[in-house]
Design goal:
The chain is an alpha+beta fold. Helix content is 34%, strand content 25%.
């Protein structure tokens, strides 16, 4: 596979992240990660790192646990140019999220970690959306959170996932890396057994740095909604 390097990740690695303007509705970010999931993740990335060659270590980036999240809907993509009036844009989406909260059914979203996958751009956890609760929530968001004239369209992922690996530079041996990645992920996943996530809250987050590499504080977690 011809993996895609990401200049924004290169900047994060250099500790020179770009200042961005993004707004997303997400899960698994503003609350402590479930212990079983956190233990699994630490074990997985440690095993991957222990088996990587020097070239692979220099070529890939593994997310710290704190930045892992599930994007439900992107209201304003951080890769877009800044809005003409950032404060007005921010206020508009805050109001939309308040309206969304009025639809809350106080029923958690049940997700099961189904597979660990690798695309050209990222390694990610793919979840099974039990009872289609995430699908229903995304539809509700699409009905309520309608962009103003001139604003970019919403982006709703067609899967439920968490990215945890990206590429800083081209690998010397991408074929070998891919085989190693799948072998180790399969081993750790099978050793761990079923991992279920009960999502009871979601949040509106201000993505001031790429890929949710932000602090979990009131300047970034703008509002919270019970599912």
């Amino acid at each position: 596979m011809d993996f895609e390097t990401d200049v924004l990740i290169e900047q994060i690695v250099r500790k020179e992240p770009q200042e961005t303007f993004g707004l997303i509705i997400c899960a698994l970010f503003h609350q402590p990660k479930p212990i079983r999931f956190a233990d699994f993740y630490h074990k997985l990335i440690q095993e991957l790192y222990n088996n990587f060659t020097d070239d692979e270590k220099q070529s890939i980036y593994l997310y710290p646990l704190a930045y892992l999240h599930i994007t439900i809907t992107t209201l304003y993509n951080f890769k877009h140019p800044w809005p003409e009036s950032p404060e007005k844009c921010l206020q508009y989406w805050k109001e939309c999220f308040k309206n969304l909260k009025q639809t809350s059914k106080n029923k958690s979203i049940c997700l099961t970690l189904d597979t660990i996958q690798l695309s050209k751009a990222a390694g990610f956890f793919y979840y099974k959306d039990e009872h289609h609760a995430m699908e229903n929530l995304r539809q509700t968001i699409q009905n309520i959170c309608i962009p103003e004239n001139g604003q970019p369209a919403l982006h709703i992922p067609n899967i439920v996932h968490t990215s945890f690996l990206r590429f800083v530079k081209k690998l010397n041996d991408p074929v070998q890396f891919e085989k190693k990645f799948h072998r180790i992920c399969k081993e750790i996943f099978e050793q761990t057994g079923e991992i279920r996530l009960e999502i009871e809250e979601i949040c509106l987050a201000f993505e001031s740095q790429p890929y949710m590499h932000i602090d979990c504080d009131e300047s970034h977690v703008l509002d919270i909604m019970k599912c």
